[in-house]
Amino acid sequence: MKEKGLKHCSVLVADDSAASRTLLSTTLKDLGVDVVHTVPNGVAAIDYLRLSAKSSIHSPTPPVDLVISEWDMQPVGGMMLINWIRRHLDSPDRFTRTVIMSGELDSEKVERARNAGANAVFAKPFSISSLRKHVLHVLFNNPAFFKSQTYFGPDRRRNSPEFVLEERRRVKKPYSEVLGGGEHPYVGCFDLPHYYSEISLGKPRDRIDYAERNFAHQQLAAHSEDYADWVRGDAEVLRLAFRLADENPDMRARSMSLMGALIQRLEREGALLGYPLISAFAHTLDNTIKTDVHLWDQTSEIFAAALSGLDTVVRQDVRGEGGEVGRALSESLRRLNKKLLQLRPLHIHRQGVARFG
């Protein structure tokens, strides 16, 4: 049964499974969604969001009302996509409704998705009634959005201890003010009009007054982030794991194995999100931890130097080729890779053929 309120809706589905994309698209259209665009990963989703923000509802890439994303995709997954929508400098609409789905959903993933600013989370496989419930709830519920030092997203205060009692109120105008208290003294509240309710009634998008949302975006601009900001935490995790491996020989193999997934994610994401040198240094880190653990004395020096290079990219926000700083970093990376090549011949690893840039 088609829902009248979804007739003018535009949904973006990001899922690396073609079968899942087809199922979601078909089900959403059966529910009455007018436009469903599907993409295979987070990078394609970001590209579409950038493009659609400049379009009208009658174009092949209409503005997006709702993003439904699979958690685990490569090269960029659902969590990074949510982070980009909510926090990135280039996000065209940081208030876009977002839903995360996963076939391996647990309480930890639910909490991480909520902390990233997702409006809802649901498990796969899903029923038609479950999908319908989530879509209608997310689109027709209009929560205030909050910005604290550690969070930006829809109102989640009922289930979160970080907001103290006196913060349990909405601020109409101005859209942000210091509410005080707790560990997060600054809380900006953005209680915007329910734009989708107007869209659902058939009001042309070009006749909707987005002045309040635009003003909110202006206020949020000073608090926007970039991919390098998010990698800082990853670099700290790598430093701690490396220190553990260096100080505890019995833990080296396990520590390097645990670092592997994080390093490989950075290698996949960096270049795609504007930081090719993050990918390059992560590539060298990956090859280093794949080297025989018995060569630790030699490889640990290379690993530490590559991690230092990664820190420099993040700290100095070296985007693209990076100009003079980028050339210096690339040269240092070339020397590190040369040292690594001298330690071992190229050979087949469990992850595939080793590559040295």
TrEMBL record:
InterPro entries per the UniProt record, alphabetical: CheY-like_superfamily, Sig_transdc_resp-reg_receiver, ST_Response_Regulator
GO terms of biological process kind: phosphorelay signal transduction system
Species of provenance: Magnetovibrio blakemorei
CDD domains: REC_hyHK_CKI1_RcsC-like (cd17546)
Protein name: Response regulatory domain-containing protein
Superkingdom: Bacteria
Response regulatory domain residues: 10-139
Lineage summary: Bacteria, Pseudomonadati, Pseudomonadota, Alphaproteobacteria, Rhodospirillales
